[in-house]
Amino acid sequence: MKFPTATYRLQFRNGMTFDRASALVPYLKKLGISHLYASPIFTATSESTHGYDVTDANEIDPTIGGRAGFDRMVETLKDAGLGLILDIVPNHMAASLETPWWKDVIEHGAESRYARHFDIDWSRRLTLPVLGDDFEAVLGAGDLAVKPDPKTGKPSLAYFESFFPLNPATYDGREDEILKISDKASLSQLHGQQPYRLMSWRDAARDLSYRRFFEVTGLAGVRVEDEAVFEDSHRLILELVRSGAVQGLRLDHIDGLADPKGYLDRLRQAAGPDCYIVVEKILGEGEQLPADWPVSGTTGYEFVVALSHALVDGAKLKVLQSAYAGLGEKRVDAKEQLRAAKLLMASRNFEGEVTVLVKLAAKIAEQAGRPTTENELKDALSEMLIAFPVYRTYGTPEGMRADDKTLLDQVIEAIGDAGHPVSIEALALITGIIKGDVPTSAARDAVTFRTKFQQLTGPIMAKSIEDTLFFRHNMLLGLNEVGAEPIQPDFSLDHFHEEMRIRKERQPMGISSTSTHDTKRGEDARARLYALSEAPEVWIAAVEGWRAMNAKAVQQLPDGPAPEPEVEWMIYQALAGFLPPRFDADDENAVDALRERFLTYLEKALREAKLRTDWGDSNEDYEEAVLGYASHLFSKDNKDFLTRFAETIKPFIEAGLANGLTQTIIKLMAPGISDIYQGSEGFDFSLVDPDNRREPDYDTLSKRLAEGRKPDAADISAWYDGSLKQYVTAALLRLRQSEPDLFNDGDYVPLEATTDSGGKLIAFARVNGEKAVLVVLPRFTLGHGEDRALPPTLGDATVDLPAALKKKRLRNVWTEDQIETSDILKLVASDEGHPFLVFRTV
Q: In Å, how far from its chain's centre is CA 645?
């Protein structure tokens, strides 16, 4: 297999087409990547902005150029010597009338040839949560009618612009008669004869007959574990791989599948040994990718988390935690918040999925002669879901892995230690079902229970932590990232080094990301927010001043102030990470554009928190008040605030720029395949999606790289405009290309680096035989002095060298100067003032 040396993630749609991507190929080639890493390109819903709502897995989306445009892009890539990695979606498809397979299922029900392609419970009618109210209310309002489908001419149930096909058996030979139906009783009777049931979208959480992606009812789970479904849904994908058009695959949400390993084994066999495959998989603390999965690694969320250990000052976090905890009426307890978020998911957002499992467990209990009440089973199941520490286990019909059984035992132990009242018998029963310890008569139901349970723990974990808790607990927003732990760990450089060592051992060819289409904020925003941990007292005092300055904009509502102090803290922190480095409060057009982006983010943040408003039950008065407060911060009448705000956070801006460059160099030099998310070779201060899918300014990026000018690290403007980051990225990508064996196979060696002046450094080496690279980077640059300007310096650093770098000739990657080492590296005068160093063996 020819592994990538580096990938470039490109988001198609939103204006990005195959032809536009082809035009970028010369730039990407010059930048130094080896593979374009494309977001989903298969036909998706007409309004799709991301492509994960696939409607036809065997057609390349005409809206972005279709097959012809794709083929042109592939030829352009090949001519440039670049490869292509596709993001594919095996877990779900759009539950949309635009999806031919889904529409056929709606029309023909269990008799459809695609009825088993989707994960549907056919013991009842297919539920379609598309109505704005209950069926009876919609019918009574006259919003439902029988009309010919505009595309097929067949009779259908029309609900505004949606036309739901009627089962042919209910109208064959009587089309004219059916189309004349207008009275409500006959309409209701006709609806009752269909294999589907139209229902309110509000009822989906507790009454859905198909598996969905997380809690998105518009995405229906696919039974890709079935060989026929696999073949039907992978026909074009495999054709593209086998033809050589595609060299790698990124698999979306692998944990959603019934049998991830079985799927991966089948895919590997079909795609061949040379196809590069990575999986989107969230790894919990200490968790590793199953060793028997035939993939190269993950998409890199755990890499982002590891970086926080290198760049967050854990020793000072308690100051920040204490101040944040003091904002509310009661002390913040992260464990209680986590439990509350998971309980909300289990009892409300995934009520229907939990109910199905409870009823199945009750049936198995009766078969096993161990009758247990449904309430006891529900309480026990909820506690298991709450206590689950990782996304899922990987049991199959053949049984459970030993480590998964051990994990289940640990979950039961954790429930006991927590002290929440729960039936021991019910817990034992459910654990036995998952492990397969049931009578033969219940074995089939036990496998079904295990599969559904394993497909539920991940969504509950994700929605509880990433999409609830991380919008509730806002102590340091940079830590609230996909894959991060809900209970903050002890941050240390030693932990970072250990994570990199494990990365080299367990998935050296996994993708190393710093920004993705799923991260909560862009890498440079996160890097800036990390710097708050270096000077928490400065931040705390600033927030107090800003709150006082804008106190008149806070509204007093019956249920409390809006925004409440914790949300004010979040607003100022999000704003601090979001502003461009050279923000100008006098540029009204720029301020207006920033305000619109920020308000969109804030509305989502409030609803995701699910405290005083929610997606399903929005509190308009509260949202209007909080958005009004945020809008006030950007108003012309409040320009003095924006000016002072930008000036106050300037030290954090500069420390963030240093952090951003440090994390970029780490990504490019540490184990893993470096990924550049579109435009982040410059800057990425984006907020949560959809903000992070905005198209970069490729004209500026391309022009700057084409000029070939080497920025001077002593030139502050090169830090502020992103040109230094882009140059460093290109230089190190070329280094990776020139030494693939060193970066693919080289060991990761943590190094001890000290300075007499007290500066904090990060140092490591990559070593492969006689070849090596030495990296020395600044850490905690804000702590070097309150008024210290960029650039940071390494100062009088001394680095203890490993054997591979002792008594060797090294070349400075930036200056081309050469040095001779002894047992240690003592920076010479010309290096001391440099903000970062990368040496390679000569």
A: 30
